[in-house]
Amino acid sequence: MEGVMQGMQAYGAGKAGGAFDPLTFFQQPQTILRLVCWLFSIVIFGCIANEGYVNRPDEIEEFCIFNRNQNACNYAVGMGTLAFLSCAAFLVLDVYFPQISSVKDRKKAVLADIGVSAFWSFVWFVGFCFLANQWQVAKEEDNPLREGADAARAAITFAFFSIFTWAVQAFLGFQKYKLGADSALFSQEYVDPTADPNAASPMGTDYTSYAADIDTAASTEPAFDGSAGYQGQEY
């Protein structure tokens, strides 16, 4: 019975049509981690967008706090915004996922989650290295008052944390894929023994052939002829 119940599930969710339970949904590790990634992306682009541009006392135009490299600020703001939207989209997909009835569509959704999570882990690794390097080589005379220093360090720190949160998200997706693949395979190979007598045993086909041979042999055996009568035995 346990195997049958496992076969009724695919890729970490039961049959489609079940009621949505918000409490259970937000207690899932994958949902919690996705919310953490979503929060980190807000911190990164929020810090740079609000305090990532400074200027010298004798200047009017503001420049990026990371060594006056506009590409560094654009990278942090752009990737942070896209990561925020990505998290929101996959949160919606997580809510809708149990309603997907097709096993193939569930497989595509899980593979997309793995690929996107791995991609963002790489993106934040590049972003962390880029921002840390530009912050290290920034000239003190470009920002003598050290304005926005806390925001810059926060962006670098949360970019570093995002590497691991997205990597773990990809790992959880891979675990979900393995579980789903095994469950889907089981549900495809499982045959109810009560529906087909031959499926109760892996030798069902051979047994049927053997029984048929016995019946054929019995039908071809000469019938007993009683006309010869009873022959007594001499002692």
UniProtKB/TrEMBL annotation:
It comes from the Eukaryota. Signal peptide: none annotated. Its main location: membrane. GO terms for cellular component: neuromuscular junction; synaptic vesicle membrane. Residues 25-178 form the MARVEL domain. It is a multi-pass membrane protein. Keywords: Membrane, Transmembrane, Transmembrane helix. The chain crosses the membrane at residues 35-55, 75-97, 109-135, 155-174. It is found in: Membrane. PANTHER family: SYNAPTOGYRIN (PTHR10838), SYNAPTOGYRIN-1 (PTHR10838:SF7). Belongs to the synaptogyrin family. This is Synaptogyrin. The gene is SYNGR1.
